[in-house]
Amino acid sequence: MTMPKRDTYTPDSLLAVAVEVFNERGYDGTSMEHLSQAAGISKSSIYHHVRGKEELLHRAVGRALEGLFGILDESGATTGRAVDRLEYVTRRTADVLVEELPYVTLLLRVRGNTGTERWAMERRREFDQRVAALLKAAVAEGDLRADVEPRLATRLLFGMINSVVEWYRPDGRGTAQAEQLADAVVRLAFDGLRIQR
Amino acid sequence: MTMPKRDTYTPDSLLAVAVEVFNERGYDGTSMEHLSQAAGISKSSIYHHVRGKEELLHRAVGRALEGLFGILDESGATTGRAVDRLEYVTRRTADVLVEELPYVTLLLRVRGNTGTERWAMERRREFDQRVAALLKAAVAEGDLRADVEPRLATRLLFGMINSVVEWYRPDGRGTAQAEQLADAVVRLAFDGLRIQR
């Protein structure tokens, strides 16, 4: 057993530890005991910070959702042709995935029965619908292909983007790596693998 | 408690029940007791069919892998330009995902420490590498864009394709639905969302 250490956690640093444990064990499979062990402080010290593990989940997925919804308020997402706004949102979503990797990973894996999990899934669906609406508008404006049903196209687009949490690992190149990823996502999503002649 | 029923299972029908439970509870979270309850037969009846849950996992992911590797031996995957072979493999992978949905879902979720899980992950990596090699060949032949690193492109391609297991639900239209999906995957992966002018 690890000796308890002095509790010097801030809300953010405790959250970072909790998210790591949630992603490793799954939210359901994580007990306060696991969190206490991972943080190296007693359960009662954790209760000094939060009411319980659901509050940690709420803060963690809230942070991911804030990052994602924040994109939709940026000027690149609100002005211009729908196709350009969609491209902007796609690129920025890739950025946020990388910047908030553990938090978005947790958000994407949430499927469960607590109120917080249902809330997170609902908010995620809302984000997807906002993007689907943008995609539909770009089809209507004649910039995106009409031969793929917009909901299906949105799902495949998010399938590509969200897969990033499964395999992305920082390689030490920092923003250069993140930029390369966002470029690749935008190129493939909008123009595909094939050289257009 | 459910009353045990007479054991009329075939290897395939027992496997189908087990895969459903594995996908719902996770392989680690599934005990022989859970399998017994879901199948409605005693644990000893299950042991009459298989040595244990790892054998069921092995058969299940084996079935998914057989479907996927089978594609690579089909003539569409072995003859012609690399770009056409890659397109063929992409389309057929979408088909196999739909045809073998619960088995491929299980395969894609496997990450663990038993020998069978490591074997499945290794075989999956091997499949990905075969496809990555095809993609690289198509870039070398000048048919696919060279400005996205082939390994990254392969990951994003599989990210899009594999996401299908997360949201695809048969809607009763049978092969029409499956064909629509495979068309959409091929169009988006190769030519992107944008109308090429």
Automatic annotation (TrEMBL), chains A, B:
Sorted UniProt keywords: DNA-binding, Transcription, Transcription regulation
Keyword Metal-binding carried by entry: no
GO MF annotations in UniProt: DNA-binding transcription factor activity; transcription cis-regulatory region binding
Domain HTH tetR-type: 8-68
Start-end of DNA-binding region: 31-50
Pfam (any one): TetR_C_24
PANTHER family: HTH-TYPE TRANSCRIPTIONAL REGULATOR BETI (PTHR30055:SF234), HTH-TYPE TRANSCRIPTIONAL REGULATOR RUTR (PTHR30055)
Record-given protein name: Putative TetR family transcriptional regulator
Lineage, highest ranks first: Bacteria, Bacillati, Actinomycetota, Actinomycetes, Kitasatosporales
